[in-house]
Amino acid sequence: DIQMTQSPSTLSASVGDRVTMICRASQNIHKWVAWYQQRPGEAPNLLINKASNLESGVPSRFSGSGSETEFTLTISSLQPDDFATYYCQQYNSSPYNFGQGTTLEVK
Amino acid sequence: VSLQESGPGLVRPSETLSLTCTVSGGSVKDGSLYWSWIRQSPGGGLDWIGYVFYNGRTSYNPSFKSRVVLLVDTSKNQLSLSLSSVTAVDTAVYYCVRSAYDKYFDVWGQGARVTVSS
């Protein structure tokens, strides 16, 4: 199985900050990674597929990059709605595992 | 399209957890789509359980394979999950989700909270 490891577990930031979080895969997954945002009490919401493709309706302040085993999700200027937990997920091969999440909290 | 999970919120240990997902605004017979179940434990971790295709073909996470059955009912436009021999570890929110051939999940149900307890 491919393991996904996210860092940091918690990220403290302020509105307007630029933040980056990392997701590492235990083996080469090319660009087959997706990113999700989850607010408390809600289901996860797909933000990005194939490492860098922004889903329709997702604000352009979100961006993804990376390939093979290292991937990043960047939010260019944090907005109040962005304080949430973010998960990466690999879909290179079954089982389609998720990272343990990065929680973005208010500094 | 929207997905809605339903089923008992409390299951006894060693029994079978059964959930249904009703698909609205789309068809489970769409041959370009796959229907998965994902659960989220109280600690937050997300686990993909498996998927079912419109023709009944399934793929399961080996971690669940011996205990899980996923079915599709095209006449009712519904999906179902059965997880047998449950323990407290199976306490989670269970989501019904949609994907295409590339297995990232673009539509999620609101989730069904299931507690395993005597």
Q: What is the succession of H and E elements of chain B? A: EEEEEEEEEEE
Structural class of chain A: mainly beta
Taking all Cα atoms into account, the compactness measure Rg of chain B is 13 Å
Q: N-to-C SSE series of chain A?
A: EEEEEEEEEE
Largest sheet of chain B: 7 strands, mixed
The biggest sheet of chain A amounts to: 6 strands, mixed
- Average pLDDT confidence of chain B is 96
Q: In percent, how much strand structure appears in the residues of chain A? A: over 45%
Q: How helix-rich are the residues of chain B, as a percent range? A: under 10%
**How many separate helices of chain B?**
0
Structural class of chain B: mainly beta
Share in β-strands of chain B: over 45%
Helix content of chain A: under 10%
Average pLDDT metric of chain A: 97
Query: Low-confidence runs of chain B (pLDDT<50, min 5 residues)?
Result: none
**Annotation, overall tally of beta strands of chain A:** 10
Task: Write the topology of this structure.
The complex is a heterodimer of chains A (107) and B (118).
Chain A: E1 4-7, E2 10-13, E3 19-25, E4 33-38, E5 45-49, E6 53-54, E7 62-67, E8 70-75, E9 85-90, E10 102-106
Parallel strand pairs in A: 2-10
Antiparallel strand pairs in A: 1-3, 3-8, 4-5, 4-9, 5-6, 7-8, 9-10
Chain B: E1 2-6, E2 10-11, E3 17-24, E4 34-40, E5 46-52, E6 58-60, E7 68-73, E8 78-83, E9 92-99, E10 105-108, E11 112-116
